[in-house]
Write a structure and sequence with these properties.
alpha/beta; five-stranded parallel sheet; 860 residues
Length: 860
């Protein structure tokens, strides 16, 4: 019997080796159009990054090895031109001649090819794909030459992210352009946003919701990459990683059954519509084990398994007396993992996006939970935070899971994948027994915690609120005072957890309360207290404040995420201090060996080890340690909590201390801070903090009261223009801005179109009498029945002054807090649906809280 295999790499090479082990007498011919039959496709980006230094390490098996070890007739450089399934033969070209090769069984393992859409300028020699060894040789040569100083990666999938990280590691300036509104499609948006934050923290520009419009060669030979938004990125090289297409033309021409998208249709034995032809890998359509729907998976793991199954089936078909039975491929879960800069992102099963797309409703058809856990015992050094999301239904069936963290995500996703694969439920996660020792896990492993938490949801002991489900609900902050000094959700009520039982009378039982703390442990306990004291509508903010701050992070190249109360408090690079500016530290360095500020010797620096502590642990220890320091003394803090490096700068600003610098040593974030004024450093050294106001000596002081607040009471167009010009000027100077719109000023925030909302009689009358948005605003003098505003707008256009609408959008995009007075809205009958997006609905207390950090307060 004779088997011909078209294509090597994962599926074809695996099938060939397995087939030989099962049948020593079979004639096996492997035809590969390229020079390499089996290579580590997934390792290619790491060779560019010089993480994998030896190119030969990428070559899993060579033609010579397959010939000598397995007696397989391997023919590289052999391109199969056609398949004659009736005559059972293929036509092959080896570059010099064409010939025909007969077969008894044929395996198609032709894989997939990178997409190259017809974008203007895409044929430039500086635009590379990363799919084969020659591809990566070309990219590596360009990087090694030193001629490439910048790169643009098109696509934010596995390959795109890995290439961006490795190119950045080689010192290139790197931008990622992704047409979708997130990277890593297997992940839900909130989990992907954890990756967005970290990608930009590692110095990679991120442009989301912005595909490529064109490529243009510049006079110096580099490329101008124009995105759909009009943004132009310069690049010495471009990596194209926007997707794959099944390489199925041979199968199509042979008359085999294909899907609408060009994948080969196979049954569970991996057999095609022809009984003598099988197919495996990227070129086939199989079945999603969760949904039971036909689908495509392009991962090495499934391809290897399919190759093994086909080898068994071919061998069994040719040898009825064999001691093994034919096998079946049961489909895939899509379990995958990727390194994304400092983080590991792992997923299995289907995501919530897929359930919503299928018409499923959260709370009815499925539930989700999201928890924050440590990678191993917190008291053991270098424990790091991970966020885990689980999706399941009322019966406990698990649909999928996603985990993002610095360490341990791969191990936990494999556990969950195994439970799903064996038909287990959330109860089985709770029962799962794992090896435990402090360096590796916790006594209650994060996977167990997912099971415990899911069981609590199913039993009605807890209900979670997602970050974007806060609208119309009251927020209860149960964190400590020092944590609230770092960050708090606008409009929230603050009762530290230890005081909740004694202060229940301060809360309205008729309202829905969402409780939050740093990671969710205290908030769950507080929620249980409320529920057992007659509060009927209590929810816990999933993932706590640490997750909320990351998930509402706004990357530089995209608009702010939609959300409820307090959404989008952080901006990307060039916005606010959402991430510190990192300095890399040599791996052998520790917190005590990183150079301190100028003029300060190592013996004068106090060292504080907060590694393994979870938020708010590091901030609490820093707060206590600073109380024991004298004015001007230096504290160097080492922490593994990813949010600490971000929060400590805010803490310094609120407490009158000085942030000096942040270094990075592996998973450690090493932050140097000074008590009080930077002028107090011994030896005359100083540190100027971004956004700080100079004192008399010229040293940087924390800018505690450097903001602008204003009450906008009037609805005149000229006053509205002045308000937003002042606001944008303050924002440009780095000042925080809060604008409180009350009474007639609310009309400035109304949408310019009619919104159908239910109103009572007097509310309707008010609505008809008041201007609907900026288009209907009059001016305070010379209104002239509406002619005045038109004249003002024309003059503004002629003088290249932005319109009021543009000024408003600039202010919101640049981080201004736009508050609408909820009391005034009730009086005037204005509904939330009538107001523009990007504003918050608060009472006067929230506005007055903002004035604490302002040195200018205006009434307009």
């Amino acid at each position: 019997m004779k088997t011909v295999i078209i294509g090597g790499v994962a599926g074809g090479a695996t099938a060939a080796a397995r087939l030989r082990r099962l049948d020593e007498n079979m004639e096996i011919v492997l035809l590969e159009r390229r020079d390499y039959i089996s290579y580590a496709n997934c390792g290619l980006p790491y060779y560019v990054g010089d993480v994998i230094k030896d190119r030969s390490a990428l070559l899993v098996s060579t033609p010579e090895t397959m010939r000598t070890r397995f007696n397989i007739d391997v023919r590289t450089g052999s391109n199969v031109l056609s398949i004659d399934k009736d005559a059972r033969r293929v036509t092959v070209s080896d570059g010099e001649k064409e010939y025909q090769e007969s077969y008894d069984s044929l395996l198609i393992a032709t894989g997939s090819d990178p997409l190259r859409p017809p974008i203007p300028g895409i044929d430039n020699e500086r635009i590379y794909t990363v799919w084969t060894v020659p591809d990566i040789d070309a990219v590596r040569a360009e990087v090694d030459s030193g001629n490439a100083r910048s790169a643009v990666v098109i696509g934010g999938g596995f390959i795109g992210i890995e290439m961006a990280e490795n190119l950045r590691g080689r010192g290139l300036k790197v931008d990622i352009a992704e047409a979708a509104d997130q990277v890593m499609a297997p992940f839900d948006p909130e989990m992907a946003n954890l990756l967005h934050e970290n990608i930009e923290a590692n110095g990679i520009g991120l442009h989301l919701g912005d595909g490529v419009k064109s490529f243009e060669k510049k006079p110096d030979g580099s490329l101008a990459v124009t995105l759909s938004s009009g943004v132009v990125l310069g690049a010495d090289i471009v990596i194209l990683a926007i997707g794959l297409r099944a390489n199925s033309q041979l199968a199509k021409d042979a008359g085999l059954e294909l899907t609408d998208r060009g994948s080969i249709v196979v049954d569970k034995s991996m057999q095609t519509s022809d009984p003598h032809i099988w197919a495996v890998g990227d070129v086939v359509q199989t079945e999603n084990r969760i949904t039971g729907e036909p689908s495509v998976i392009r991962l090495a793991g499934p391809a290897n398994k399919q190759g093994r199954i086909v080898a068994g089936n071919i061998a069994a078909a040719s040898n009825a007396d064999a001691a093994f039975a034919a096998g079946e491929y049961d489909g895939f879960l899509g379990t995958s993992v990727a390194k994304v800069c400092d983080l590991t992102a792992a997923s299995t099963g289907i995501n919530e996006k897929a359930l919503k797309a299928a018409g499923k409703v959260k709370g009815q058809d499925y539930e989700t939970i999201l928890i924050s856990q440590k990678s191993h015992a917190g008291y053991y050094p270098l424990a790091t935070q991970m966020f885990a999301k689980l999706i399941f239904d009322k019966s406990g069936k698990i649909y999928g899971a996603q985990i993002v963290g610095q360490d341990g995500a791969d191990k936990r996703i494999d556990m969950i994948s195994a439970v799903i694969g064996m038909g287990g439920t959330v109860t089985d996660l709770k029962k799962l027994e794992q090896a435990y020792a402090p360096p590796y896990s916790s006594a209650k492993d994060p996977v167990n915690m997912l099971g415990f938490t899911a069981e609590n949801v199913l039993n009605g002991l807890v209900k979670f609120a997602s970050w974007d489900e806060l609208e119309g609900k009251e927020i209860l902050d149960v964190s400590e005072d020092v944590e609230r000094a770092v960050w708090s959700m606008p409009g929230s009520v603050h009762i530290p957890f230890g005081q909740v039982r004694d202060r229940l009378t301060e809360l309205d039982k008729s309202k829905t309360w969402v409780v939050y703390c740093a990671i969710g442990v205290r908030s769950y306990n507080a929620a249980r207290i409320l529920m057992q004291h007659g509060f009927e509508h209590v929810e816990v903010l999933e993932g706590g404040a640490s997750f909320y701050k990351s998930v509402t992070y706004r990357p530089t190249g995209c608009s702010a995420p939609a959300g409820g109360k307090g959404a989008a408090p952080f901006q990307g690079a060039g916005g606010s201090a959402s991430q510190p500016d990192y300095t890399e530290v040599a791996p052998e360095s520790g917190a005590g060996s990183v150079p301190g500020p100028a003029g300060v010797s190592e013996k004068d620096i106090r060292i504080l080890d907060c590694t393994g502590l979870q938020c708010p642990g590091p901030i609490m220890k820093v707060n206590k340690a600073m109380q024991d320091l004298g004015e001007g003394e230096i504290l160097k803090v080492s922490a593994t909590d990813t949010g600490f490096a971000r929060d400590v700068r805010s803490w310094c600003d609120h407490t009158g201390n000085t942030y000096i610098a942040t270094e990075k040593n592996g998973v450690e974030h090493i932050v140097t801070i000074q008590k009080g004024s930077a002028a107090g450093i011994k030896g005359g050294g100083s540190a100027v903090v971004p956004g700080a106001a100079p004192d008399a000596a010229g040293a940087g002081l924390p800018a505690k009261n450097d903001g602008l607040t204003m009450i906008v009471f009037d609805q005149d167009l000229d006053k509205a223009i002045a308000s937003f010009i002042i606001a944008n000027g303050a924002l440009a100077m780095g000042k925080p801005v809060t604008m409180f719109f009350t009474f007639w000023g609310l009309n400035i925030l109304r949408k310019n179109r009619k919104v159908n909302v239910k109103k009572q009689g007097i509310e309707k009358m008010f609505g008809s009498m008041m201007p609907r948005g900026t288009k209907e605003l009059g001016i305070s003098n010379m209104n002239m029945l509406g002619m005045g505003p038109k004249m003002i707008r024309k003059v503004m256009r002629d003088k290249n002054v932005d319109s009021i609408e543009s000024l408003m959008r600039q202010a919101i995009d640049n981080g201004a807090k736009i508050y609408a007075c909820s009391m005034s809205m009730d009086i005037m009958g204005i509904k939330k649906e009538e107001l523009i997006d990007g504003i918050e609905y608060v009472g006067v207390a929230s506005y007055l809280g903002s004035t604490d950090s302002a040195n200018v307060n205006l009434f307009i």
